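Design review, sub-item: ligand-bound model
Attendees: FS, YL, KQ
YL presented the inputs for the iron/sulfur cluster complex:
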Amino acid sequence: MDRGMGLQQKIDLLMSLAQDDHEGLPSRAPVPAGYRAGASPVTPRVVPPRLRHAAEVGALRPLNIRQLRYGAGVRTSLLRILMTNACSFNCHYCPMRRDRNLPRTLLKPEELVRIFLGAYARGWCEGLFITTGIPGRPVKVMDDLIQVLESLRERHRFAGYIHVKMVPGADAAQIERLTALASRISLNLEAPCGASLARIAPDKSFPAALTSLERARAQINTARLEERYGRPRDPLHPGGTAGMTMQFVVGATPDTDQGILNTVTALYRGGGIHHSQFSAFRPIRETPLESARATPALREHRLYQADHLLRRYGFDAGEIAYGADGNLPLGVDPKCAWALAHPERFPVEVRTASAEELLRVPGIGPATARRIVSERAGTTLRGLRDLRRLGVVTARAAGFVTLGGRRVQTLRWSEQLGFWGPEEEAGAYQLVYDVSPGTFR
Ligand code: SF4
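KQ shared the predicted structure:
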């Protein structure tokens, strides 16, 4: 890993790998002229004319490197590549929409492969995330995506993580092939129903998107089942078994959080979906929604928290607490909102409660609930310090639990928030942006 280079230098260097290479694809990418390990600044080779605007498009530039954390402290990094920011669709919320005046760039499949292998060979990333606009026919874009994955998997034998976003309008055979090669495949649903989608994305079809999702989902479920029954995993053809994701733009339509989460939970029931992505709407300059109000980032955050409750905490859709407007309260997290709406379930006695009961306490997650149940078999939990040691966020949990019949704190965390208004975190200012935060989700 080269720690001497800044992110922009790495990206400049990787972009230089997009130049035409008549000597074929390297299995270990060559180090461009001007690069010395640890040297700074780097003088990259000249990028091809087609990509000369790549540095002028801010967050829509073709490359990003992002650190991810998953599981217990496991970190990985993904090279996130936007294959092209050109698009023939005209979604009202999107910075890449057809009618918007914007420098456009495009990576050819072989360039994208070369860039990724260059970053991978240098230890800058362990996996790849590919998304793209749709210039021209969607089936051509899908063919390009398949070409990238076939090259990485079957020619260069890359067995690591690849997340790819399929595009609307893909045909069945393309979805099948892309899913077979990807670790994770995702789909932008954008809205929870067809009527809402038509308001903001006139070229897209909700039923067609659902058909694509169901095709990929059926394949993933089959692959997972076969693995469960003993078929060895083929790392070069993982079959999308890391699970799908689907993305929603939040706040660009009148849809409530309840409407969005109802659609999400209905889709989860069929299996094969890992999680949902929520992107708070931001008004983009020179789009039909330029003067619409930005959605608070906190609303997006609350949706992620509620989604977490549905997937990992055993909550049913009907248990999520909404305000009278059908949205999640901004001033309190969804788990705490549920706890406050159910005083009959509290306090929970930490020394005797089941793991399921502990999991309902704000400030106690699945791992902590399991740890409490296993630790208390051999020791007596006496106070806040013991709870903290086991991973309890005592500032949240203290008002909802007892230890040996005694409350450990009388005030609930949520009742101590009088000094802090949700609009402070939600963002009181109206900004107009050039890019959307959801571009790389
Ligand atoms: S959301 Fe996707 S399909 Fe719609 S304009 Fe943007 S890039 Fe094109």
